[in-house]
Amino acid sequence: MTRSAAEIGAGLLPARPARPIETGSRLHVIGAAGAGASAAALLAHHAGASVSGCDAGGESPYTPALAQAGIPLAWRHSAEHLGDSAPGGRPQRLAVTKALTSVAADHPELVAARRAGIPLEPWQQLVADAAATRSSRLVAVAGTHGKSTTSGWLVDLLVRAGRDPSAFVGALLPAAVTGGEPATARWGGGDAFVVEADEYAGNFDAYRPEVAVLLNVEWDHPDVFADQAEVEEAFVRWLRDAAVDGRSVMLVANVDDPGVVAVCRKLAGWPGRIVAVGTGAAGQSVGDAALQARVISRDEAGTALRVIRPSGSDLELHVSLPGDHNVANALAVVGAAYCLAADDQAVRDSLASFGGVGRRLELKGEVAGVTVLDDYGHHPTAIARTIAGVRQRYPARALWAVYEPLTYHRTAAMLDEFAAVLADHADRVVIADIWAGRDPDTTLTSSEALAAAVTRRGGAAATASGSVEQTADYLADHVRAGDVVLVMGGGRSYVIAERLLRLLAGEAR
């Protein structure tokens, strides 16, 4: 069963054209410890607003940056946050995460805000307004997979080029990029504002980019989209809306992806310009311009490419991040750099040196000969591509695929696909408890059902290991020197990697 964007964002105002944030305006962010909402709070703060936030889940990897900025946070939800006695006074509007409205539209704090006449908007609107405050060119990176890596990579490139970008990225950017604490936001003085644009339940509707990047289009979010066609239509609608009233839009399209090609075909008559990127010949018949790449070599250190640009000039590049999916991400970054007229040397340096963003094939450490990686992969295609990247970087080593499934709807709808990928590509498989997140129906399936499906397929042996803490304990008892442990998931799976490293180092349970 699917739900509409209006049902998931119940009580939130619809997306509107972005407008500058007024200096001194009072804003409160509900769910401020999340990756996106924390970025919205930071960006509004830097734009001159008086910002506060709350989150019943407590501190997270995203909250140190808020603390550094001096943004007051409360670790509970309460109508008190809306009164005159709240830090900074009564909020003029609230930015809210749909992770709350999707499961608790009648939450007391939201109800109190409506009674008080305080507007409720999704936090993405706050990000869009921050970009309007900067009067920046909005660059939106969209697609089913790879958004965080690609948007973070583009920010890194623009920083190296001296362009001083602002940004929202759905994963932690390193301190070298933010200039302070690792964070999901960056505030700069340049002309580009990069945002990660998520298709879930209209999350990207607030963004009207001048440059859009479309990485891939595949069926995901089965609680929102019934099939592939609905996903494609969501991207088509978003891109058409971006070009309303004759606005100039450039679309960087990965034409190696069939879903992206389908979207481009459906954009017939669209007034924007399509810049096709890829390693095949599809770009010759899809875009107004094409950047074609050829893989020269690949090894444990990465992939060497030759890119031919519309001018006919070649660009020799080395992609440091492993896997063909990161080659595709890198080409999208090159395409965006072309649209933004970024310096070639910055392109070369960034592709060769960028170490990635948080929880995207992130090396957490190596203890007792065991290498532990952390990744956000939560879709069969993403998992397959991530494992292939690990195999490129760590050939001939035993690979543990440790997965915390993200939402019951996705796990149930794609259970056979998850089982096939895990059974066929890993040496050992461990399934932690499903992270419900914004999913209200926790009865659809279980981690035990997925582990059983993996085992039935043969290949890798699978174990349902319980909570993330229990999963780390299980791994500590079974991994051996030389093993590579790839932890994947979108909930609390990062706890598995961190706890496992402590246990391997001899810390008590």
Top CATH class of the largest domain: Alpha Beta
Distance between the termini: 41 Å
- How many domains, as an integer? 3
CATH superfamily of the largest domain: Mur-like, catalytic domain
Quote the beta fraction: 15-25%
Cα gyration radius (Å): 22 Å
The class by helix and strand makeup works out as alpha/beta
Model regions low in confidence, pLDDT < 50 over at least 5 residues: none
Q: In CATH terms, what is the architecture of the largest domain?
A: 3-Layer(aba) Sandwich
CATH topology of the largest domain: UDP-N-acetylmuramoyl-L-alanine:D-glutamate ligase
User: Could you say which overall geometry the principal axes of the C-alpha atoms support?
Assistant: globular
The helix count comes to 19
Q: What's the overall average pLDDT, rounded?
A: 95
Strand order of the largest sheet: 8-7-9-6-10-11-12-13-14-15
> What is the total tally of β strands?
21
Mind summarizing the main beta sheet?
A: 10 strands, mixed
Helix coverage percent: 25-40%
Written overview of the protein:
- With 509 residues, this protein is α/β, with parallel strands linked by helices.
- It folds into three domains: 5-123, 3-Layer(aba) Sandwich (Rossmann fold); 136-353, 3-Layer(aba) Sandwich (UDP-N-acetylmuramoyl-L-alanine:D-glutamate ligase), CATH 3.40.1190; 362-504, Mur ligase, C-terminal domain (Protein-Tyrosine Phosphatase, Chain A).
- It has 19 helices and 21 strands.
- It has a ten-stranded mixed β-sheet with strand order 8-7-9-6-10-11-12-13-14-15, sandwiched between helices. A six-stranded mixed β-sheet has the order 16-17-21-18-19-20, sandwiched between helices. The protein has a five-stranded parallel β-sheet with strand order 3-2-1-4-5.
- Helix 2 packs parallel to helix 6 and helix 18 (468-478) packs parallel to helix 19 (494-504).
- The mean pLDDT is 95.
